[in-house]
Design goal:
Length: 123
């Protein structure tokens, strides 16, 4: 974690800034997840998977989770390309860029599977 201390501190600073801004969402992510049958445990698994995909140490998963909760939109970049963009819940549930990994972590929830993505890409 020592090599990532500056990045972690910067993440904490940005989250503090987001906390200070009035929320733009009328319904919290927690309520949206409950409405869609997603448990807090599922959400934490997702944040850990996203942290791993970003090649960050596990302690960063709490920053990823809090950022997703505070933001009204999530954007993921890979090699300079946007690979996921949308509401936190949309990215959590249906991002084709992350679906295979999320499906593996979230199993047995009914999210997209690897075969779903392969089939969609074949069309």
């Amino acid at each position: 974690m020592d090599t990532h201390a500056a990045l972690y501190a910067q993440g904490q600073q940005r989250l503090a800034y987001l906390r200070a801004i009035a929320p733009r969402q009328s319904v919290s992510l927690e309520q949206k997840m409950a409405d869609n049958g997603i448990t807090r445990r599922d959400f934490i698994k997702w944040s850990a998977a996203m942290t791993a995909m970003l090649a960050l140490p596990l302690p960063f998963s709490n920053l990823v989770a809090e950022a997703a909760e505070l933001a009204d939109r999530v954007l993921f970049l890979a090699e300079g390309e946007i690979v996921a963009d949308g509401s936190t819940l949309d990215v959590l549930l249906s991002s084709p860029a992350f679906a295979p990994q999320v499906a593996k972590v979230m199993s047995p929830k009914p999210w997209l599977t690897v075969s779903d993505v392969v089939q969609a890409l074949a069309q």
